[in-house]
Amino acid sequence: MDKVKILVVEDEIIIADNICDSLNDLGYEALEPAINYTEAIDVIENNYPDIAILDIQLSGKKTGIDLAKKINRDYKFPFIFLTSNSDLATINEAKKVLPNAFLVKPFSKEELFSSIEVALYNFSKKTGGVDNLEVIIKDALFVKDKGCFTKILFDDILYVQSAHVYAEIVLKDKSTHVVRVSLNDIINKLSANFVRVHRGFIVNTRYLQKINPTSLHINDTEIPIGKTYREAILNLINLL
């Protein structure tokens, strides 16, 4: 599992460093902060973040709102607006680009944490990828781990196993994560590499090694094949 990568765009470097320190303390991965629009684009292009915290007022001609428009148009990940100016005109201008959360300086570490949770949740809900506070954004599943969102890349998932009202996600490194969601719900959120092979199993076909009459192997794990799923699996394999 990877940490959630967060970009801070703030032209007061002391404030930016303090935010980054708080993010690292909270269990996130703070990228090198940017002080203006151009630096922010460079960081995004080279270290694609999962979420950004954008100061509305930046040094240079382009503002945080300009950067938000660029993110919405070209990168499509959630962002939080940060400002020391909470007047109605600023808020109304910021609302036009649909921020996923809003922070007003000064703020506490708890408020920072809450805004990140809200932003991830709101963005995923808007894009149709949220179930029971577990969040899916593009190629990753964000799950609660010790009170903080943790990122699980789809490519790191071997299979998902039903555990009554929960789903147990098994990763390449043999670690597991349990989420309160049904297999019916989660299969619709995962990528096309995932296929239902049994009423109790979803597998990542990228790691399919062998298929037998009644089972298949995902890496070194044997998983049963349900009768109603076998034909669909064979058709899928024939297409590969």
Describe the model.
Helices cover 33% and strands 33% of the residues. It has 240 residues and is α+β, with helices and mostly antiparallel strands. The chain has two domains: 125 residues, Response regulator (Rossmann fold); 85 residues, LytTr DNA-binding domain (OB fold (Dihydrolipoamide Acetyltransferase, E2P), Beta Barrel). A five-stranded antiparallel sheet has the order 1-10-9-8-7, with helices on one face. A five-stranded parallel sheet has the order 3-2-4-5-6, sandwiched between helices. Strands 13-12-11-15-14 form a five-stranded antiparallel sheet. Helix 3 links the parallel strand 4 and strand 5. The radius of gyration is 21 Å and the shape is elongated.
Quick overview:
The protein is α+β, with helices and mostly antiparallel strands and 240 residues long.
Distance between the termini: 28 Å
Number of structural units classed as domains: 2
> What is the radius of gyration?
21 Å
What letter string, H or E per element, gives the SSE order?
EEHEHEHEHEHEEEEEEEHEEEEEH
Mean pLDDT: 87
Assign a percent range to the helix content. 25-40%
